[in-house]
Amino acid sequence: MAWLLGDTLLVTAMTVLVKIEGANYPAIQLVFIRSLIGLVSVLPLAIRHRAEILATKRVGRHMVRVGCNTVALTSNFAALTALPLALVNAIGFMRPLVVLVFAVLLLAERVGPVRWIGTAIGFLGVLIMVAPGEVPLSLGLLAAFGSVVFGSLAVVQTRALKGENTTVLMVFYTVGLTVFTGVPAILAWQPVAWGDWPTLIAIGVLAQLGQYCFLRAYQSTPASILAPLGYLSIVLATLTGLVVFGEVPQWTTLLGVIVIIVALQLTNMFDRPKVAEQER
Length: 280
Hints:
Number of strands: 0
Mean pLDDT: 82
Number of helices: 13
Largest sheet: none
């Protein structure tokens, strides 16, 4: 639980930096810099396990997975820049429910009626949060939903690669993210002021440390025990948005979060995952 709390704190700090720097630099540029930091940390693994990497026979599916992650992460950074932290975080809670839908459509997984009911309740929570007149339709809102959709597709691809070596998955993700964002980042590149480099590097470092804490948490403790603690992220996001950016959460956001959490708990009662994965 301490590892997961550390992950929550680190990722919250990262989102603050992304929101600050997102006003000056394109989201794709921030993702590219973040991926370069990850590339430095994963290169020793890539060298050590090069035989397994070269032996994989599912390069195409790996590329699809990484492509979905690239769109999801870029959309998430764009949404963080344009929307209140609490709203982006709350919309992100929909990912497990969207994964459920895609798993049925793309992997032919069987889902019971209770889980479908939970999914429907979760989508109702989203409708409450983005009710007409409360949250205007914007590119930031579309980016937030795009992050959920493509992030869910990436998770489904990971399920399809369940027999693959974990190190191979990590290396393909990090290297692929750097390659896929490289050209778009160069085309959209904005000159970086020397004073901004420490912040941009910190985004990548915090993301990597957060991912490490997340993996340690789920390697040592069942997901069913850790899941409720994950809801603290909405509390931290709300408080951080209020203190750092002066963002007062709307009542619809808070009500929608409550509805989504109820939906997640309902589905978790009938679907206790053995493995948890989160890619940022």
